[in-house]
Specification:
heterodimer, A: mainly alpha, about 85% helix, about 0% strand, B: alpha+beta, Alpha-Beta Plaits, six-stranded antiparallel sheet, about 10% strand, extended
Chain lengths: ~80, ~650
C-alpha cells in the first residue's frame, strides 16, 4: 500500500511543476530573444537618443512570450 | 484636441532695408517657423548676417565657457533689464574673466605640484625604513650599489661571496640597500636574482627619506588647503556673478539668433523673401504686427499647402493643459504627422487606466503619489515635471483600482473565504460581498474584487479589453488612412480587419450555438470576404499578420498577469515579515521583521513604477499604435525666444 502511494504523484505537485516550467522556460526564452535586441537598441540610442521609443518597443516585443507563460501557469494552477 | 494645430504657409516679401525690423517683429512674436532657404537656380541668394555677429559669438563662447567652469545652472532668478545688462557687459565680463582665469591658473599650478610630490612620495616610500641619506646612494667609482626589494634573508649568501660589504635592510617592506666592491657586482647580482631581486629607482633627492616624506606630507596638506580655498573663491564668484551670467547669456543668444536669421532666408539684390509656417489662428496677428512695424511696406501672404509639402509641415500639439504631460510619451515614440490624428488624449485616458489596473493597490498608490508630489515640488526642472504629472495621474487610477480590488500593500482589506477557510482582512468586520457568478472558471464576482481568486475571469476580461482597444486602433487607422489615401484604401487596409473579426465572432457564436448553428457558414463567408479585402489592401503582408490578432489581444492579459506578480511579491514580503519572523514577544526579531517589511516594500515600490509603467506603455506603443500610427512629424520651432532672465 505504502509503495503504491509513493509511486503515484500528487496531481497538485505535477500542476505546480508544470506551472513552474511554463514561467521559467518562457522567461529564459524572452531573455534570449531580448538580449540581442536590447544591446542593439542601446547601441542605436548611443548614436541617436531620439530612437529611445523605437528601441524600447523593439526590445519589449518578445516579452509577450513570458506573459503567455505566466498566463498558462495561472490557468494550470 | 485629436488633431495637431492647424498651420498656414506664409511668405513675407519686402525691401532689404526693412529686413531688420521684420526679423525683430517676428522674433518678438515667437510664432513664425522659418523654413530654411536652400539655394537653387532661381538666382536668389542666402542672406548675409547683420552687424557684428562675430564679436557677439566670441563673447557668447567666453560666457558659456565661464558658466560651465563655474557650474552655473539654469535656475530661476530675478529678471534684469536688457539695457542694464548690455551697459555693464564688457566691463563686468572682463573683470569676471580676469578673476576666473587667475584662479584657474593658480589651481592648475597647485594641482601639478600636488601630482609631482605624490609621485615622489611613492618612489620614496620603500626607502623610508632605511635611515640613509639619499645622496650616499650614488657617485662611487669603486663601489656598486644595489637598491631594491628581495624575498627572504640574503646576508649569508652575500657573506659567502665577500666579507667586505655593507647591507641595510628594512624587513617590513623587504627593501635592501647593499654596497659592495665593484668587482663582485656580477656575482652578487646573480646571487640576488635567486631571491627575486627587483631594482628600485632611487629618487634624485638629498636627505633622509623619512624626513623628506614627512615634509612632503606637510606640503600636500597645505596645497590641499589652498585648493579648497580657491574652490571656495570660485563658488563665491559663481554666487556673485550667477545672475549676470544667466542674463547676459540669454541676451547675447537672442542677439546672435537675430543677427544670424538672414542665413535662413532668401534674398535678391534688394529684396528678401521669408517663407515659413504660422499657426492659422495667429496668421492675422503676425500680419498686423508686421504691417504696423514696417508701416505697410512689407508684403505678407498666405500660400496654399501643396499635398507634397505635407511631410514638412511643422507639427505643434494642440491639447488641453491637463493632457500636455502625456505629449512626452508621444515624443518618446514619434511626433504625429500633420495630417495624422494626435492620440495624446487617448493615451491620457488609457495609459494611467492600464497602469492602475495592473498595480491597483491603495498603499503603493499613496506612497508613489506623495513621492511624485514631493519630487515635483523640490525639482523645478522642465524635464521632470511632466513625468511626475504622468505618475500622479497614474496613481489616481491606481487608488481607484486599489479600492476596487481592496488591496493595501499586498494585504486584502476584506476577509475572504478560500477553500472553506476564512482568511481575515486588514479591516475587521469588512467581509467580501458576493455579487454574481462569473461565466468563466466557476468563479464568483465579489466586491472587493480579489484578483488572486478570479484569475480565469480576469484573463478573459483583460483579453476583451485588448480586443476593444485594438479595434479602437483600427477605427483610428481607418480615419487616418481615409485622410491620406481615400475611403477605398481605408476600407481595404483597416476595415478588412474588422470584417475578419466579425466573421470570427459569428463563427464562434454559431459554433457554441449561442446563435442558430447555420450562422457558422455566414461567419466563414464574412471571414473570407474580409480576408480577400485584406489581401487586396495590404498584399501578402496582411495574411501573414493575421495571427497577430490573437497574440495582440492575449497580450493584454498582462494587465492581470503583471498585477498578480506584484501582489505575490508584496504578500510574500508580508508573509516573511509577519508570519515567519515576527516573534511572540517584542525583541530583536521584531526590528528585523520591520526591516524586512520596509525593505521589501521599498523594492516593490520601485518595481511598481517600472513594471506597470513599461507594460502599460508597451500596450500603447506595440499593440495600439501599430494599428494606426505612423508618426515622424517635424517639430514646430518658432523663431523667437521666451525670456527667462531678462526683460526689455
Amino acid at each position: 500500500m505504502a509503495v503504491e502511494s509513493a509511486a503515484v504523484m500528487d496531481p497538485a505537485g505535477l500542476k505546480a511543476i508544470g506551472a513552474g516550467l511554463a514561467v521559467g522556460l518562457t522567461g529564459i526564452a524572452s531573455g534570449i530573444a531580448e538580449k540581442d535586441i536590447g544591446s542593439a537598441a542601446v547601441g542605436a540610442m548611443a548614436e541617436n537618443e531620439a530612437l529611445f521609443g523605437k528601441g524600447l518597443i523593439l526590445t519589449v516585443i518578445p516579452e509577450t512570450i513570458v506573459i503567455f507563460g505566466l498566463v498558462v501557469a495561472l490557468l494550470i494552477s | 484636441m485629436l488633431n495637431p494645430r492647424q498651420m498656414s504657409r506664409a511668405l513675407i516679401v519686402g525691401h532689404k532695408d526693412l529686413l531688420e525690423e521684420t526679423i525683430e517683429t517676428l522674433h518678438k512674436m515667437n510664432l513664425f517657423h522659418i523654413e530654411d532657404y536652400v539655394e537653387d537656380d532661381s538666382g536668389l541668394k542666402i542672406g548675409k548676417p547683420f552687424g557684428n555677429v562675430d564679436s557677439i559669438s566670441k563673447t557668447l563662447v567666453k560666457i558659456r565657457s565661464i558658466a560651465s567652469y563655474l557650474g552655473v545652472k539654469n535656475e530661476a532668478t530675478e529678471k534684469q533689464k536688457v539695457s542694464v545688462v548690455s551697459n555693464k557687459l564688457d566691463s563686468m565680463l572682463e573683470e569676471l574673466d580676469k578673476e576666473v582665469s587667475e584662479r584657474t591658473d593658480r589651481k592648475n599650478a597647485l594641482e601639478t605640484r600636488l601630482k609631482e610630490i605624490e609621485s615622489l612620495k611613492k618612489d620614496l616610500l620603500p626607502f623610508v625604513g632605511i635611515p640613509l641619506d639619499l645622496d650616499l646612494y650614488r657617485g662611487y667609482d669603486s663601489l656598486a650599489v644595489f637598491a631594491g626589494v628581495v624575498k627572504g634573508n640574503i646576508e649569508t649568501e652575500i657573506s659567502d661571496i665577500t666579507g667586505s660589504y655593507e647591507l641595510f635592510t628594512d624587513s617590513k617592506s623587504g627593501t635592501i640597500v647593499l654596497f659592495i666592491p665593484i668587482n663582485y657586482k656580477e656575482e652578487i647580482s646573480k646571487a640576488l636574482a635567486e631571491f627575486d631581486y627587483r631594482e628600485l629607482k632611487v629618487p634624485n633627492q638629498k636627505g633622509i627619506p623619512a624626513e623628506i616624506v614627512s615634509m612632503i606630507d606637510a606640503e600636500k596638506a597645505s596645497i590641499i588647503k589652498q585648493i579648497e580655498g580657491i574652490d571656495a573663491d570660485i563658488a563665491k564668484l559663481k554666487d556673485n556673478y550667477k545672475d549676470f551670467i544667466l542674463a547676459s547669456n540669454e541676451m547675447l543668444s537672442i542677439e546672435a539668433a537675430k543677427c544670424e536669421a538672414p542665413l535662413h532666408i532668401a534674398t535678391s539684390e534688394s529684396t528678401f523673401f521669408i517663407e515659413g509656417w504660422v499657426p492659422s489662428d495667429s496668421f492675422k496677428n503676425v500680419e498686423n504686427a508686421i504691417s504696423k512695424a514696417t508701416m505697410n511696406r512689407v508684403f505678407i501672404t498666405e500660400l496654399e499647402i501643396e499635398p507634397k509639402q505635407e511631410p514638412v509641415v511643422p507639427v505643434d500639439y494642440n491639447n488641453p493643459k491637463i493632457v500636455r504631460p502625456f505629449q512626452e510619451i508621444m515624443n518618446l515614440y514619434a511626433r504625429p504627422r500633420y495630417k495624422e490624428l494626435d492620440p495624446t488624449t487617448l493615451i491620457f485616458i488609457t495609459f494611467p487606466l492600464f497602469y492602475g489596473m495592473i498595480l491597483g493597490d491603495i498603499g503603493y498608490a499613496l506612497i508613489l503619489m506623495s513621492l511624485a508630489i514631493v519630487i515635483k515640488k523640490i525639482i523645478k526642472s522642465d524635464a521632470v515635471k511632466p513625468l511626475m504629472d504622468i505618475l500622479i495621474s497614474c496613481q489616481i487610477y491606481t487608488l481607484v483600482f486599489g479600492i476596487l480590488y481592496g488591496e493595501f500593500l499586498g494585504f486584502p482589506l476584506a476577509s475572504v473565504v478560500s477553500h472553506g477557510e476564512v482568511e481575515a482582512g486588514l479591516i475587521p468586520g469588512f467581509n467580501t460581498i458576493e455579487l454574481f457568478a462569473s461565466p468563466f472558471g466557476g468563479e464568483m464576482i465579489t466586491f472587493p474584487i480579489h484578483r488572486t481568486h478570479l484569475v480565469m475571469t480576469m484573463i478573459v476580461f483583460t483579453a476583451l479589453i485588448g480586443v476593444i482597444h485594438i479595434n479602437f486602433g483600427y477605427i483610428l487607422g481607418f480615419i487616418n488612412e481615409n485622410r491620406k489615401h481615400g475611403f477605398s484604401a481605408a476600407l481595404l487596409e483597416k476595415g478588412s480587419w474588422m470584417v475578419i473579426e466579425l466573421g470570427i465572432l459569428l463563427g464562434i457564436l454559431g459554433y457554441f450555438e449561442v446563435l442558430p448553428s447555420p450562422i457558422v457558414y455566414a461567419g466563414v463567408i464574412v471571414f473570407l470576404a474580409g480576408f480577400l479585402m485584406l489581401l487586396k489592401g495590404e498584399g501578402i503582408k496582411g495574411p501573414v499578420e493575421l495571427p497577430s490578432l490573437l497574440s495582440n489581444s492575449l497580450s493584454y492579459t498582462r494587465l492581470i498577469a503583471v498585477g498578480l506578480s506584484s501582489i505575490y511579491i508584496a504578500s510574500t514580503v508580508n508573509m516573511i515579515a509577519f508570519e515567519m519572523i515576527w516573534p511572540e514577544k517584542i525583541g530583536v526579531m521584531t526590528v528585523f521583521a520591520i526591516f524586512i517589511f520596509i525593505f521589501g516594500h521599498a523594492l516593490n515600490t520601485v518595481l511598481s513604477i517600472i513594471a506597470p509603467g513599461l507594460h502599460a506603455l508597451r500596450l500603447q506603443y506595440v499593440e495600439f499604435f501599430n494599428k494606426f500610427y505612423e508618426g515622424g512629424g517635424r517639430k514646430y520651432d518658432p523663431f523667437g525666444y521666451i525670456r527667462k532672465y531678462t526683460e526689455e
